[in-house]
Amino acid sequence: MRVIGLAGWSGAGKTTLLTRVIPVLIAQGMRVSTIKHAHHSFDVDIPGKDSWKHREAGASEVLVSSGRRFALMHELRSEAELTLPELLARMSPVDLVIVEGFKRDRHPKIEVHRAQNGKPFLHVEDSAIVGLVTDAPAQTQLPQAHLDDIGAIAAMIEKLAVPLADVFDRASTGN
């Protein structure tokens, strides 16, 4: 399993980019999963449904299964948020995991930057950024692709992704 992150300010187009690049990677024969970091309380369950009632009653985990999919919800309650390596360890094996968010973590990331946001580039301050996807000119030695060049972005993702063990090593050494 290999891992690469996408990092950028809100509104840069990370999710839109993922929805465009995942089908290209899959068409190349890759099995792809994603991890998305949310900065706020979120819910994947529907209030009033049985699974929601189980969770609200205090269940630590609720697994909902059907003939088409399953979803496992784990309530942290008063536990600390899981780290990226802890979350990656819970993933089923695939060829590639793309991490959206976790921009302060030390895993290798490709910065997604949109000029219209008016935000500064992240790669200037973050040595974990190994590539840049932008619609603006940038003075950097990092590999670059335009936001609309999905083929080049897919190739960059494939080239810059690292083995899962490297992410674990970076987390344990703080590098």
Question: How do the helices and strands line up, and which of them pair or pack?
Answer:
Layout: E1 2-7, H1 14-27, E2 32-36, H2 50-56, E3 61-65, E4 70-74, H3 84-89, E5 96-100, E6 109-113, E7 129-134, E8 144-146, H4 150-160, E9 162-163, H5 164-173
Parallel strand pairs: 1-5, 1-6, 2-5, 6-7, 7-8
Antiparallel strand pairs: 1-9, 3-4
Helix pairs in contact: 1-4
Radius of gyration computed on alpha carbons: 18 Å
Strand content: 15-25%
Task: Report the helical percentage.
Answer: 25-40%
Q: How does the overall form come out from the CA principal axes?
A: globular
CATH architecture, by name, is 3-Layer(aba) Sandwich
Number of alpha- plus pi-helical segments: 5
- Mean of pLDDT: 91
| Highest-level CATH class | Alpha Beta
Determine the CATH topology.
Rossmann fold
Q: Tell me how many strands there are.
A: 9
Distance between the termini: 20 Å
| CATH H-level superfamily | P-loop containing nucleotide triphosphate hydrolases
How many distinct domains?
Answer: 1
* Structural class label: alpha/beta
Outline the biggest β-sheet. 7 strands, mixed
Instruction: Give the SSE string.
Output: EHEHEEHEEEEHEH
Low-pLDDT segments: none
Report on the architecture of this protein:
This protein is α/β, with parallel strands linked by helices and 175 residues long. The chain has one domain: Rossmann fold (3-Layer(aba) Sandwich). The protein contains 5 helices and 9 strands. The mean pLDDT is 91.
